[in-house]
Amino acid sequence: MSDTIHLPSLFVSHGSPMLAVEPGRTGPLLSDIGATLPRPKAIVIVSPHWETVTARVGNQPKPPVIHDFGGFPQALYQLDYPASGQPALAEHVARLLRDGGVEAGTDGSWGLDHGAWVPMRYLYPQANVPVIQLSLQSHMPPDYHYRVGQLLAPLAREGILLVGSGSFTHNLRELRRNDPATADAPHTLEFLHWFLERMHAGDLQGLFGYRTTAPHAVRSHPSDEHLLTLFFAMGAADDWTQFVHLDSGSTYHSLRMDAFAFGTASNLLAQLPAAA
């Protein structure tokens, strides 16, 4: 495999755990992304479902799948994603963060939670690319997560795909649980359009302050852990102002399922049907 694989960084929305069995528009989009990009040597993914005080990097040779949810159909609990880990890469990730002044270490206590393995089942269904998970510090602001992405950006030049998994909007109190294909909630579209305007303007500081300036920010994210991974993906790009927005609509009314590719290699995905 070439050592000069050119990869964008990604933000993907994993929405509800039901995405694993209800692909909707998002499953095919993720499959298209995985089929279109050059195959990475490994994947580093940040999920909001592993929250720690300081950055932790999963270092298991075979990370277990974690079914970190309750009250869902039994079929979900039977699903697996038998990807290998890569302990040497985990240590490399932790070292890059420490060298940049971010407290970090490796950790064998977690695995792959549904924020990681659900989208991975669509992106790389054969589980033939090593995956390591990086924890989220949800008490830290967007600029911290952007900085974490910046520190790991050199990995893309080594053929490592950097992924932030979350949900572009995530208000569970407004879910319409019996209708996964329901129409977009108008306030989530206003929130999306504000973000796109700021992105196209290259207004990084405005995006960092989204919580006080974006329309319906708190309604869209009562807590913002599912959006912080977007800032990680932006920071991980060689130039975040070059991006492709991939629109897969909403699920359950209040979960926008948008994806983004960032960086000069984002044009690899510009011809996908979902590219907006």
From TrEMBL:
The keyword Oxidoreductase applies. Its cofactor is Zn(2+). Residues 38-239 form the Extradiol ring-cleavage dioxygenase class III enzyme subunit B domain. It comes from the Bacteria. CDD domains: 45_DOPA_Dioxygenase. Keywords: Dioxygenase, Metal-binding, Oxidoreductase, Zinc. One of its GO terms (molecular function) is dioxygenase activity. Belongs to the DODA-type extradiol aromatic ring-opening dioxygenase family. This is Dioxygenase. It comes from Herbaspirillum chlorophenolicum. The lineage of its organism: Bacteria, Pseudomonadati, Pseudomonadota, Betaproteobacteria, Burkholderiales.
